[in-house]
Amino acid sequence: MEGFTHLIPHAAGHEVIRQRRRDLTLVRMTPDIIYDQMIGAGCARKLVFSWAGNPGVGSLHRFRDAVEHAWPVPLEIEEHSHAGMANRYVAGASGLPFAILRGYRGTSLASQTAGVAEVVCPFTGERLTAVSALRPDVAVIHAQQADRLGNVQYWGITGVQKECVLASARSLVTVEAVVDVLHPRPGSVVLPSWAVSYVAVVPGGAHPSYALGYSARDNDFYVAWDAISRDRATFAAWLDEHVYQRPAAPPGPDGDTVLAGDTGTGR
Amino acid sequence: MSYTADEMMTVTAARALRDQMTCFVGIGLPSEAANLARATHAPGLVLIYESGTIGAKPGALPLSIGDGILAETADSVVSVPEIFNYWLQPGRIDVGFLGAAQLDKFGNINTTVIGDSYADPRVRLPGAGGAPEIAAACREVIVVIRQSRRTFVDRVDFVTSVGFGDGPGSRQRLGLTGAGPSRVITDLGVLTPDPQTSELALSGIYPGVSVLDIKGRTGWDLRVSADVSEIAAPSEAELTALRDLLATMPASKATEGAAR
Fold first, then answer.
1. Strand, coil or helix: what is A16?
2. pTM for the whole thing?
3. Which terminus of chain A has a smaller tally of CB atoms within 10 A, N or C?
4. Is B82 a catalytic residue?
């Protein structure tokens, strides 16, 4: 599930929690509140990430509880830098086994994390860092719009979602709205329908993250999450009230799911 | 006008930025200082956030590096792979502006774990984010951090981002292209690296703070630079601009403060 602060697919994450999925390997540059919730709900066996905080607020307490106290279940971690994770997605999207960057040199991360290795440039002899490709089974992202054919458009902070979708075997895009025509937006990314497996209409599906042009980031909720998540019982009560007891978001006016072109036969 | 130690720190950090510089900004204290600089003496400061927003001109202080206001006011918004590969890595950015949980005498930064064991940490911190490559590739790095024996340690428990590594020559041996930390700005004063030893030395003191105070809140035997000087208190204009800026933060956050 990607979305760099913007366009985080929260509603989809809540559905994963409701379906009580277990033993997932969760991949995300910034786990953010959504993975804090999924980790606290016991969905994850492993987390692959590069920055696990509540942006501008502090710790992700459910993540910390899992790492420090194995609650509710032990959490294996595979930790990178942002540049490393971004390049791992680029390698996956490019169909390459690894990507190259100047990074990790001299850090303690290099010795703690598999999938980081030194390579020598065949042309200059410079020592560089290779990071292994990410190839998730499923990518889940949120976007502003899809058209009736399942072409998807998103804009604003576009993050690493294109690379995530193209690196993954299958993909689901939740969208704010289905429109007749995708009007081009400055700086937008358009994913053609044949590169996306499924589109689901979920207005507000990014909250408390946001969809530029449709909603604003609910900064007050990010601040409030600190107290909600600090205590196991408070967290469990929140999860029960706001996720388990709440049905999946009602389908949009055009039906719940638009099948896009790629049903996941290739990467 | 009276002021707090945090305000003195943020004002000092803002003064370190010059107009027209390009600045890769971390969230929290660095973002406050960079936006203060832009609101005062450096209106042409180019703010770059790792969310891919280049030339962001937020009118309100963002809570996260991905607030909508950054994208809406940016000169250009690029993808996350692009911000790291095309903009940061080749050394296009003048200054990296970072926070830290732990810092050592060679300016190495820890934001990953506290404790001896990575596998079984005493405190699990958020991790690296963009910091390792910011610290490696920006032409210079400025660190903003509150000073205590807990945060200023002889050796960091985990090197998340490299300052001067083991000392002189480390950065060259590691192939790090930027010059490394040029100063560390705390709530007590300013430290700068000794050109010979690369060790951080006290070079500036805030009004009303003593060298003894600062040494007492440093976890190594802090050297004092021969030309250590007192740093001017914040002007009324600086304080007013800072308080106006902080008033734009979400209300629940502005009162909470210490969690950053």
1. helix
2. 0.94
3. C
4. no
